[in-house]
Amino acid sequence: MMDGAQSAWTGTIEVEERDQIDLDKLAAWMTGNVARFAGPLRYAKFAGGQSNPTYRLSSPSGDYVLRRKPFGPLLPSAHAVDREYRVIAGLHPTGFPVPRPYGLCENPDVIGSAFYVMEMVVGRTLWDGTLPDMMPPQRRAHYDAITDTLAALHNVDYGAAGLEAYGKPGNYFERQVGRWTKQYRASETEHMDSVERLIEWLPATLPQQTRTSIVHGDYRIDNMIFAPDAPRVIAVLDWELSTLGDPLADFSYYLMSWVTKPEGRSGVEGKTGPETGIPTVEEIVERYCAATKRDGVPDLNWYFAYNLFRLTGIVQGIKKRIVDGTASSAQAEKSAAGVYRLADAAWGFAQKAGA
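^ thats the sequence. predicted structure below, dont judge the formating
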């Protein structure tokens, strides 16, 4: 049985009036764009997906997933469902586990915003990173699968996948720090000292970039679907923040769970080792480096500070949308309360890194 947090994010809810879409127009579009589609359509909204609203579509030809931009005013470059679709469409033929893409519609006349339709992948969503219902060998096998899947993503030949123009040249972290500083400023609702210190410190201490790969941007245990009966990742979801960049951004973000206290979500701090089966940071680093042919990773504290700064910017954006009345999930309001905690934690890692 799913716990409350998990069911709130993986279940579906009745579509509120503000999130309703024209099913007749959508069915007409799908008839022309989705192979073997047959109507009529029914739909429900997934309870999570606080950034890009996500729907389950049901029809005689099967179930599908629709992701769309939120209605209402949006920040520049945010909610880029066209980029999500592009990376999924590039990765799917390589064998990397993503849902099958069916079509992208950038014409807002169909449902009121840009959207895309993809396969509904059926499997297990794991919400609590401590995997409380598993035995130690199962936990290790699942974490090995997560680590191996991330290494496989970073080993993808992005040129062969048609994604050589998916990101910009130059230092990824320099661009990202600049981007999230701008996003934070565009969403700013009050002054926060720790954020101001980070905005000054991060650009002055950028690490050297030695590799470029596809970067997922939000790689954590609840953004993937596992096989129903095996420790195997069958779909990585939520590519909204993906780009070409430094793979250490993804890897260090994944490792944030190891410095986050267990809270029913991805945090596993204090829960690793032989007794639980959850690999230690050192074991994750060793496995990832072997799979990606690295001889090690740099001091992670700078990367942890950066990742928490970026999360601060994302959650501040959610907070701003609550103020403006455009947030699409009941979870958004609760998330926004974490802005201060994230900013202070980011500055704490900056200090460990020498700030």
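Residues 52 and 69 are 5 Å apart (CA to CA).
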